[in-house]
Design a protein that fits this description.
By secondary structure, the chain is α+β, with helices and mostly antiparallel strands. The protein folds into 2 domains: 5-125, no CATH class; 130-216. The protein is 30% helix and 36% strand. The strands form 3 sheets. A 4-stranded mixed β-sheet has the order 1-2-4-3. Helix 1 (17-38) packs across helix 4 (113-125) and helix 3 packs antiparallel against helix 4. It starts with a strand and ends in a 5-residue tail after the last strand.
Protein backbone atom coordinates (compact mmCIF):
# COMPACT_ATOMS: atom_id res chain seq x y z
CA UNK A 1 0.00 0.00 0.00
CA UNK A 2 1.02 3.61 -0.52
CA UNK A 3 1.47 5.88 2.48
CA UNK A 4 -0.95 8.74 1.78
CA UNK A 5 -1.35 10.63 5.04
CA UNK A 6 0.06 11.41 8.45
CA UNK A 7 -2.16 12.91 11.13
CA UNK A 8 -1.95 13.93 14.76
CA UNK A 9 -4.86 13.70 17.19
CA UNK A 10 -6.05 12.55 20.58
CA UNK A 11 -7.49 9.35 22.00
CA UNK A 12 -11.24 9.85 21.71
CA UNK A 13 -11.83 7.46 24.63
CA UNK A 14 -10.03 9.91 26.93
CA UNK A 15 -10.94 13.38 25.68
CA UNK A 16 -14.17 15.20 24.98
CA UNK A 17 -15.10 15.10 21.29
CA UNK A 18 -15.04 18.90 20.87
CA UNK A 19 -11.65 19.14 22.64
CA UNK A 20 -10.20 16.41 20.43
CA UNK A 21 -11.57 17.99 17.26
CA UNK A 22 -10.06 21.35 18.21
CA UNK A 23 -6.66 19.72 18.80
CA UNK A 24 -6.76 17.98 15.42
CA UNK A 25 -7.68 21.22 13.63
CA UNK A 26 -4.89 23.13 15.38
CA UNK A 27 -2.21 20.57 14.52
CA UNK A 28 -3.28 19.90 10.94
CA UNK A 29 -1.13 22.65 9.39
CA UNK A 30 1.98 20.67 10.39
CA UNK A 31 0.62 17.31 9.23
CA UNK A 32 -0.52 18.77 5.90
CA UNK A 33 2.99 20.13 5.29
CA UNK A 34 4.58 16.75 5.99
CA UNK A 35 1.96 14.89 3.93
CA UNK A 36 2.61 17.07 0.89
CA UNK A 37 6.33 16.31 1.13
CA UNK A 38 6.04 12.52 1.47
CA UNK A 39 3.16 11.83 -0.95
CA UNK A 40 5.35 12.21 -4.09
CA UNK A 41 7.68 9.53 -2.69
CA UNK A 42 4.96 6.89 -3.21
CA UNK A 43 6.32 5.02 -0.20
CA UNK A 44 5.16 1.41 -0.06
CA UNK A 45 4.00 0.19 3.35
CA UNK A 46 3.10 -3.21 4.71
CA UNK A 47 -0.63 -2.97 5.30
CA UNK A 48 -1.48 0.68 6.03
CA UNK A 49 -2.29 3.83 4.07
CA UNK A 50 -1.94 6.37 6.88
CA UNK A 51 -0.19 6.93 10.20
CA UNK A 52 -2.21 8.38 13.05
CA UNK A 53 -0.11 9.66 15.93
CA UNK A 54 -2.52 9.38 18.86
CA UNK A 55 -1.98 11.48 21.97
CA UNK A 56 -2.91 9.53 25.11
CA UNK A 57 -2.86 10.56 28.75
CA UNK A 58 -2.02 6.95 29.62
CA UNK A 59 0.08 4.85 27.24
CA UNK A 60 -1.18 1.35 26.59
CA UNK A 61 -0.81 -0.56 23.34
CA UNK A 62 2.20 -0.29 21.02
CA UNK A 63 1.78 0.81 17.41
CA UNK A 64 -0.87 -1.30 15.65
CA UNK A 65 -2.96 -1.27 12.47
CA UNK A 66 -6.63 -0.47 12.94
CA UNK A 67 -9.80 0.27 10.97
CA UNK A 68 -9.28 1.62 7.47
CA UNK A 69 -5.65 0.46 7.19
CA UNK A 70 -4.31 3.05 9.63
CA UNK A 71 -1.18 2.55 11.72
CA UNK A 72 -2.00 4.03 15.14
CA UNK A 73 1.07 5.17 17.07
CA UNK A 74 0.33 6.17 20.70
CA UNK A 75 2.34 8.93 22.37
CA UNK A 76 2.04 10.62 25.73
CA UNK A 77 -0.18 13.74 25.69
CA UNK A 78 0.40 16.22 28.50
CA UNK A 79 -2.88 18.11 28.62
CA UNK A 80 -1.83 20.64 31.26
CA UNK A 81 1.35 21.50 29.37
CA UNK A 82 -0.54 21.80 26.08
CA UNK A 83 -3.01 24.25 27.61
CA UNK A 84 -0.22 26.39 29.08
CA UNK A 85 1.61 27.03 25.79
CA UNK A 86 1.34 30.12 23.62
CA UNK A 87 1.07 29.90 19.84
CA UNK A 88 4.81 30.01 19.16
CA UNK A 89 5.47 27.24 21.69
CA UNK A 90 2.75 25.03 20.19
CA UNK A 91 4.75 24.55 16.98
CA UNK A 92 7.42 22.53 18.76
CA UNK A 93 4.88 20.77 20.98
CA UNK A 94 3.13 19.39 17.89
CA UNK A 95 6.44 18.53 16.22
CA UNK A 96 7.63 16.68 19.31
CA UNK A 97 4.48 14.56 19.47
CA UNK A 98 4.60 13.83 15.74
CA UNK A 99 8.24 12.75 15.65
CA UNK A 100 7.86 10.63 18.78
CA UNK A 101 4.89 8.86 17.20
CA UNK A 102 6.67 8.26 13.90
CA UNK A 103 9.68 6.83 15.77
CA UNK A 104 7.32 4.56 17.73
CA UNK A 105 5.74 3.37 14.49
CA UNK A 106 9.18 2.75 12.96
CA UNK A 107 9.93 0.17 15.67
CA UNK A 108 7.27 -2.12 14.18
CA UNK A 109 6.84 -1.03 10.57
CA UNK A 110 8.84 0.39 7.68
CA UNK A 111 8.18 4.14 7.45
CA UNK A 112 9.98 6.98 5.57
CA UNK A 113 11.60 8.22 8.77
CA UNK A 114 14.39 10.22 7.12
CA UNK A 115 11.99 11.91 4.67
CA UNK A 116 9.60 12.85 7.48
CA UNK A 117 12.44 14.30 9.56
CA UNK A 118 13.63 16.23 6.51
CA UNK A 119 10.12 17.63 6.00
CA UNK A 120 9.97 18.72 9.63
CA UNK A 121 13.38 20.40 9.32
CA UNK A 122 12.13 22.30 6.27
CA UNK A 123 9.01 23.31 8.18
CA UNK A 124 11.16 24.68 11.00
CA UNK A 125 13.45 26.54 8.60
CA UNK A 126 10.38 28.14 7.03
CA UNK A 127 9.38 29.63 10.40
CA UNK A 128 6.64 27.03 10.88
CA UNK A 129 4.68 28.36 7.90
CA UNK A 130 2.64 26.17 5.58
CA UNK A 131 2.22 27.99 2.28
CA UNK A 132 2.11 26.53 -1.21
CA UNK A 133 1.06 27.34 -4.76
CA UNK A 134 -1.74 25.02 -5.80
CA UNK A 135 -1.82 26.10 -9.44
CA UNK A 136 -0.27 28.58 -11.85
CA UNK A 137 -1.93 29.18 -15.20
CA UNK A 138 -1.76 31.59 -18.14
CA UNK A 139 -5.26 32.67 -19.10
CA UNK A 140 -5.16 33.11 -22.87
CA UNK A 141 -5.89 35.25 -24.83
CA UNK A 142 -6.15 37.82 -22.04
CA UNK A 143 -2.49 37.63 -21.08
CA UNK A 144 -3.33 37.12 -17.41
CA UNK A 145 -1.21 34.84 -15.24
CA UNK A 146 -3.30 33.35 -12.44
CA UNK A 147 -2.03 31.73 -9.24
CA UNK A 148 -3.98 29.91 -6.55
CA UNK A 149 -1.99 30.30 -3.33
CA UNK A 150 -2.79 28.26 -0.22
CA UNK A 151 -1.94 29.20 3.36
CA UNK A 152 -2.64 27.11 6.43
CA UNK A 153 -2.04 27.77 10.12
CA UNK A 154 -3.48 26.46 13.42
CA UNK A 155 -6.56 28.65 13.08
CA UNK A 156 -7.57 28.63 9.42
CA UNK A 157 -6.97 27.74 5.79
CA UNK A 158 -6.92 30.62 3.31
CA UNK A 159 -6.97 30.48 -0.50
CA UNK A 160 -5.68 33.55 -2.28
CA UNK A 161 -6.14 34.38 -5.97
CA UNK A 162 -3.32 36.36 -7.57
CA UNK A 163 -3.66 37.78 -11.09
CA UNK A 164 -0.77 39.37 -12.99
CA UNK A 165 -0.65 41.11 -16.35
CA UNK A 166 2.65 42.10 -17.99
CA UNK A 167 4.45 41.51 -14.72
CA UNK A 168 2.17 43.77 -12.69
CA UNK A 169 -0.20 42.46 -10.01
CA UNK A 170 -3.76 43.49 -10.93
CA UNK A 171 -5.56 41.46 -8.25
CA UNK A 172 -4.41 39.68 -5.10
CA UNK A 173 -7.02 38.86 -2.48
CA UNK A 174 -8.16 35.97 -0.24
CA UNK A 175 -11.17 34.31 -1.85
CA UNK A 176 -11.83 31.41 0.54
CA UNK A 177 -11.36 30.85 4.26
CA UNK A 178 -12.20 27.65 6.17
CA UNK A 179 -11.18 25.62 9.17
CA UNK A 180 -7.69 24.10 8.65
CA UNK A 181 -8.68 20.66 7.37
CA UNK A 182 -8.47 19.21 3.84
CA UNK A 183 -11.83 17.47 4.18
CA UNK A 184 -13.37 20.96 4.37
CA UNK A 185 -11.41 22.93 1.79
CA UNK A 186 -9.88 20.49 -0.72
CA UNK A 187 -12.99 20.06 -2.89
CA UNK A 188 -13.68 23.80 -3.06
CA UNK A 189 -11.10 24.64 -5.75
CA UNK A 190 -9.63 22.84 -8.73
CA UNK A 191 -9.04 25.28 -11.57
CA UNK A 192 -9.13 28.92 -12.61
CA UNK A 193 -10.57 29.85 -16.01
CA UNK A 194 -11.97 32.75 -18.02
CA UNK A 195 -15.63 32.26 -18.83
CA UNK A 196 -17.26 35.06 -20.76
CA UNK A 197 -16.30 38.33 -19.08
CA UNK A 198 -15.21 36.83 -15.77
CA UNK A 199 -12.26 35.05 -14.14
CA UNK A 200 -13.74 32.07 -12.30
CA UNK A 201 -12.27 29.70 -9.72
CA UNK A 202 -14.06 26.37 -10.02
CA UNK A 203 -14.44 23.59 -7.48
CA UNK A 204 -14.04 19.82 -8.00
CA UNK A 205 -17.60 19.70 -9.35
CA UNK A 206 -16.91 22.53 -11.85
CA UNK A 207 -19.10 24.94 -9.90
CA UNK A 208 -17.89 28.49 -9.20
CA UNK A 209 -16.24 29.15 -5.86
CA UNK A 210 -15.33 32.71 -6.83
CA UNK A 211 -15.75 34.99 -9.84
CA UNK A 212 -14.36 38.40 -10.81
CA UNK A 213 -15.34 40.61 -13.73
CA UNK A 214 -12.43 41.26 -16.12
CA UNK A 215 -13.55 44.88 -16.32
CA UNK A 216 -12.63 45.34 -12.64
CA UNK A 217 -8.97 44.51 -13.19
CA UNK A 218 -6.57 47.44 -13.30
Amino acid sequence: MLLRDISLGLNRDEDERIYGSDFQFRSRYLCNFVRRKITPLRFQTNGFRAIFVQGCETLRDPCRIEGENVAVAPVLFEKSRYESLDQNELHEFFIGMLLTGISTCAKNYEVPLVAIQSAVDEFRQGNHQNRWIFKKKLLRPHGIRASLICMMDPERFVLKLKLERKGAVVFEEPILETMPDETIFAYQFKDVVVDGDSVIVRDKFDKPTFSLKLSLLA
